[in-house]
Amino acid sequence: MPNAMKQHLYGLLLTTVLLTGCTHRNPIAETLTYAGEQLKTDPDDALHILRGIAPEALGSRAERARYALLYAEAAERSADTVDSARSDSLLRMAWYYYRERPQEVRNQCRTRYYQARNKLRQGDKPGALRLFLEVEEQLRHIDEPRYLGLLYLRIGKVYHDELNFTRAYRYYREARDLFLRLEETEHTTEALLGMTASALRMHDLVRAHRDCTMALDLADESHNEKLVRKSLGYFATIYAVTDTARIPEGLLQRIEQSVRADTTASGLCTKAQTQLLRGQPQLACRSIRTAELRTPRPGELPMLYYTAYLANMAAGEYREATRQINRFILLNDSLTRTSLQNSAGMIEREFFRERTDFYDYRLQSRRRQELLLIGTGLLLLGIAGYLLRQRIRLHKIRNERYLLLVRELQSEYRRLSEDLQAQRHEESRLKGAIASRFDVVNQLGKALYERGETASGQTAMVRQVKKLIEGFAENGEMLQELEQIVNLAHDDVMRHLRTDFPAMKEADIRLLCYIFGGFSPQVISLFMEESVANIYARKSRLKARIRNSESPHRELFLALLG
Hints:
There is one protein chain. The chain is an all-alpha fold. The chain contains 25 helices and no strands.
């Protein structure tokens, strides 16, 4: 299908997605979701869809960050040439968004990973390695085996290019284990081929043969011709540099068939190795010279020079073989010096030293914070203890004051009780005296009233009693004393009577005083020189008057009136 027609179909597809998504809240989000689904099966389609989205159509920062990650991943997995400048700009925008959100750890790692890939494409291996190590540290805290495996592949490649084959082999092996767990055959094969290349450079041919055999089996199983050719190329190198094993004929034929139409420098080098294995050193030398004209990549030159050395040695061209081995040694020395200048191990050590310094700083900062918190806690505890002690002391003082008040109240209560008891004793004594005195007078009055003056033997007694009664009836001092005694005996009843009834006649007050004092109507009739009937009548009248009054002491008066 022509490219113009293909782009037209992609544009039509994008328009359809946008028109379909117009009924939703966010058509751009729908397009990004669709591009993400296409990315899993067809990265080229996803990349064309993403390139068709105008930058101004991306409204929010979240959409722009999501778009940047999808674009970087699609460009990584697509066969098209990556626009590094645009990709860097998009990834920088995504990083500014995700780094402010701790919950977006996965997207932070993805952003850093693709930024490191861009640095690798630009030749900045130290910068790429630092980013890879940073991502590795973050990925250890989350469960992302796929991205961790891809990360190990890239770190292994960096170490391989820096001639640190031991660490390269270790990272490739970690990547293989992760991809085996995920059952991703293609990436597992890539990891095994990286292990093979590292083992070859370490001259561990047994391990290289074992890893390459597993890689070829997986490549055949997944029908990936690119990985099959790469695996066969490594087999050609393994058998070309070894003197102890002979290559199987079937494997040799497969290698020859895979490079028959390959005109690249690496393909011609592999062809030269197969010609060596066939015992054709002259043809191998010719293939090497043709490969040198194809401008091989720097990473292909060491094996090309070494193969040329083997071919010239087998052809008997020892001077040319010496020249080729010298070129091989000089190239290795140059690569070693370059590697030492930009050593991945030094970068790694520097990275971990910075991390160690950072963690030391965090530890010291945490210790200072802990000491500050402990000091603040102790200060607060001291303040709380002091306040609690003060509160306890105040409670103690208050309780002591309450106890003192209670003791004073108890003392006052005992004093009042004693005074009340003494008053009651005095009242009892006075009442007894009054009762006995009035009883004598009452009895004498009754005797005088009942017997009169008829008996000659009682003349003196009658005279004395009559004199006493006349004294009560006429002597003002005895009447005043009687009123005081009645007040004392009956809660100041006479004083209350005079206060509550200021208009009452003196004769009525006198009659009530006799009644309150306990004298009988008969004796009162003698005191007042009135008939008993008249005394009863006056008593009833006064009782009714008091009952109908508003006097506050009415109940006391009525109780004493009987």
